[in-house]
């Protein structure tokens, strides 16, 4: 089966991991700092914290923001459920706002209409790797007195109006799952510009431990003493995985270039094919293209999905609207809430896209899709 996404591992990656395994630190060691420093280069200097997953990154971001019971978080339903579920786990109510029909990103107008006096955060999702309209969302968040969070699980390395993802929101989260632009097997990160929020995020990912004597309530015990002032979790990403991530980051530019090349080839191969819409790109963005999301017209998405997979082409659907999941239905969310997102989902299909995809494999995908649609 040709997958819709796949990691790209070289001998340099293997050697980077092996070097850590032969060393003194498997976790909480120097590879973590090196990985975070290299990631900070890609966020335009905004400091980064490595964590165990993209989901953990979102949980850390909401915690650092102070999201809690009684607060509301506005976000897109066209995302993996973690964007919303981690806010609920903080005790907040999620308010889903509709998406732009061309990019699938959070619509600033819909987000503005969803603002109430309880809005604590607005979380944009860079769907498929295309950055959301951050300048407009920044204005919405500013008027609401809310924190702007970027869920950049898809968009590491992307730019918006010549600014890198990571500098566009107050906090930005990343995912390093194997299908993402770079991988640490499992892993994620949070980019946080504000020092106070950074400190809170750092402690939350490490059980809430306070080790600095000047900040402890009862520091007179000795060098071993540590305290917990607020509960946290173990979201530390170990050195073994950070070493893999650092090796991968050194190829991020090449990964981005190959993905862009494949997207251009898909555009050329599928541009005249009836019955589908190709993904949009705003002129002021340079996406990293995690997905190649097409829209299949005339109610044929399920048929196309089944026939492509039967032919060994692992297309995928991204995503079921978050509030369609039973856990949100049980909280009272109803279908029909975001018509544009639901219409997008009804037609969406992701074609295979990853750096090691060959031109011949891509030609096969395009040829079979054409045969199915004709």
TrEMBL record:
Molecular-function GO terms, alphabetical: pyridoxal phosphate binding; transaminase activity
Active site: 180 (proton acceptor)
Pfam families with a match to the protein in the record: DegT_DnrJ_EryC1 (PF01041)
Cofactor: pyridoxal 5'-phosphate
UniProt cross-references to SUPFAM superfamilies, sorted A to Z: PLP-dependent transferases (SSF53383)
Modified residues (N6-(pyridoxal phosphate)lysine): 180
Protein family: Belongs to the DegT/DnrJ/EryC1 family.
InterPro entries tied to this protein: DegT/StrS_aminotransferase (IPR000653), PyrdxlP-dep_Trfase (IPR015424), PyrdxlP-dep_Trfase_major (IPR015421), PyrdxlP-dep_Trfase_small (IPR015422)
Organism: Nonomuraea cavernae
Top-level taxon: Bacteria
Taxonomy of the source species: Bacteria, Bacillati, Actinomycetota, Actinomycetes, Streptosporangiales
GO biological process: polysaccharide biosynthetic process
Keywords: Pyridoxal phosphate
Gene3D superfamilies: Aspartate Aminotransferase, domain 1, Type I PLP-dependent aspartate aminotransferase-like (Major domain)
Designated name of the protein: UDP-4-amino-4, 6-dideoxy-N-acetyl-beta-L-altrosamine transaminase
């Amino acid at each position: 089966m040709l997958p819709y996404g796949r990691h790209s591992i070289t001998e340099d990656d293997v050697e980077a991991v092996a070097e850590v395994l032969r060393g003194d630190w498997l976790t909480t060691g120097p590879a973590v700092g090196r990985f975070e420093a290299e990631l900070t280069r890609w966020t335009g200097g905004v400091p980064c914290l490595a964590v165990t997953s993209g989901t953990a990154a979102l949980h850390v971001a909401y915690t650092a923001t102070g999201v809690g019971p009684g607060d509301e978080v506005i976000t897109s339903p066209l995302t993996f459920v973690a964007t919303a579920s981690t806010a609920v786990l903080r005790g907040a109510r999620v308010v889903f706002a509709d998406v732009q029909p061309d990019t699938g990103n959070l619509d600033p107008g819909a987000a503005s209409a969803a603002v109430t006096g309880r809005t604590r955060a607005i979380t944009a999702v860079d769907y498929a790797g295309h950055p959301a309209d951050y300048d407009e969302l920044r204005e919405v968040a500013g008027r609401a007195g809310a924190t702007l969070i970027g869920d950049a699980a898809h968009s590491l390395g992307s730019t918006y109006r010549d600014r890198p993802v990571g500098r566009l929101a107050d906090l930005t989260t990343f995912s390093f799952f194997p299908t993402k632009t770079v991988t640490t097997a499992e892993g994620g990160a949070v980019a946080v510009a504000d020092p106070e929020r950074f400190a809170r995020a750092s402690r939350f990912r490490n059980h809430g431990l306070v080790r600095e004597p000047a900040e402890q309530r009862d520091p007179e015990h000795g060098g071993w003493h540590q305290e917990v002032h607020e509960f946290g979790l173990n979201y530390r990403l170990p050195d073994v995985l950070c070493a893999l991530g650092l090796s991968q980051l050194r190829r991020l530019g090449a990964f981005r270039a190959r993905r862009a090349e494949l997207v251009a080839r898909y555009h050329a191969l599928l541009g005249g094919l009836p019955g589908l819409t190709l993904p949009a790109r705003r002129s002021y963005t340079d996406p990293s293209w995690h997905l190649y999301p097409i829209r299949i017209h005339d109610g044929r998405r399920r048929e196309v999905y089944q026939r492509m997979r039967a032919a060994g082409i692992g297309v995928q659907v991204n995503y079921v609207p978050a509030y369609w999941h039973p856990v949100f239905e049980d909280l009272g969310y109803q279908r029909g809430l975001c018509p544009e997102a639901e219409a997008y989902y009804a037609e969406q299909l992701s074609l295979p896209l990853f750096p090691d995809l060959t031109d011949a494999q891509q030609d096969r995908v395009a040829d079979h899709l054409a045969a199915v649609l004709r």
